[in-house]
């Protein structure tokens, strides 16, 4: 079994800023606190991972680079499977603005990870295919007991959770991590939304 540690990138909004829906179209850098969150995560990982993966967004690659620097590892491996969901028409809007126009769709997404039709930029099936292919690649590339770190975003994390567990996928806070065990024919969620 491969031990996969999925971490959400650090903060991208400064204290006091109004948070908006930030997906694949908004490429924000980490704040100072976001960089500190990445350092705390790197310390919490323990032993050096076999590999570090990241989505293509700046907040993801900056987090991965901090983890890489901590372990003096090779460069992070970029994969589209970890790049955040394209929130389409919701991108850049506050929760309140989204709720005004799409109340049912927002509740379905928040409570059940139900894909809002005609809103997001990519389909659920495209994301599912990317994630499944990437997980299969991990199973083929690493030996039982190997530890792999992957930096992604909350939408992808919630999506991964919804593939394994029924019900409302819990939000993962910035800088927090989740641990999954990848077996040959299954995945087990070991820990979720852990603060380093």
CATH architecture: 3-Layer(aba) Sandwich
Q: In the CATH hierarchy, what is the superfamily?
A: Phosphoglycerate mutase-like
**Helical percent range?**
25-40%
Largest sheet: 6 strands, mixed
Number of domains: 1
Shape: globular
What is the β-strand count?
6
Q: If you compute it from the alpha carbons, what radius of gyration comes out, rounded to the nearest whole angstrom?
A: 16 Å
User: Helical region count?
Assistant: 6
Widest sheet: strand order? Answer: 3-2-4-1-5-6
CATH T-level topology: Rossmann fold
What's the helix-strand series?
EHEHEHHHEHEE
How does the SSE layout of this entry go?
Blueprint: E1 2-8, H1 32-45, E2 51-54, H2 58-71, E3 77-78, H3 95-101, H4 103-112, H5 124-141, E4 147-152, H6 154-164, E5 177-182, E6 187-194
Parallel strand pairs: 1-4, 2-3, 2-4
Antiparallel strand pairs: 1-5, 5-6
How would you explain this protein's 3D organization?
- The chain has helices spanning 32-45, 58-71, 95-101, 103-112, 124-141, 154-164; strands at 2-8, 51-54, 77-78, 147-152, 177-182, 187-194.
- The protein is an alpha/beta fold and 196 residues long.
- Helix 1 (32-45) packs across helix 2 (58-71) and helix 3 (95-101) crosses helix 4.
- The chain has one domain (2-86, 122-194): Phosphoglycerate mutase-like (Rossmann fold, 3-Layer(aba) Sandwich).
- A 6-stranded mixed β-sheet has the order 3-2-4-1-5-6.
Sum this structure up briefly.
By secondary structure, the chain is an alpha/beta fold. 38% of the residues lie in helices and 17% in strands.
């Amino acid at each position: 079994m491969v031990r996969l540690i999925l971490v959400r990138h650090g903060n991208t909004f400064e204290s006091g800023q109004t948070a908006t829906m930030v997906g694949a179209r908004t490429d924000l850098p980490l704040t100072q606190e976001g960089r500190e969150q990445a350092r705390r995560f790197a310390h919490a990982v323990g032993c050096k991972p076999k590999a570090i993966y990241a989505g293509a967004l700046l907040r993801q690659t900056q987090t991965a680079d901090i983890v890489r620097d901590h372990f003096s590892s090779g460069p992070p491996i970029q994969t589209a499977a970890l790049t955040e969901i394209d929130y389409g028409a919701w991108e850049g809007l506050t929760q309140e603005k989204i709720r005004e126009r799409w109340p049912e769709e927002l509740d379905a997404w928040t409570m059940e990870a139900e894909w809002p039709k005609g809103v997001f930029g990519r389909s659920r099936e495209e994301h599912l295919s990317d994630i499944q292919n990437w997980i299969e690649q991990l199973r083929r590339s690493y030996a039982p007991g190997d530890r792999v770190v992957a930096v992604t975003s909350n939408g992808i994390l919630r999506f991964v959770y919804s593939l394994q567990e029924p019900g409302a996928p819990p939000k993962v806070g910035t800088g927090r991590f989740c641990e999954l065990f990848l077996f040959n024919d299954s995945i087990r969620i070991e820990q979720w939304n852990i603060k380093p």
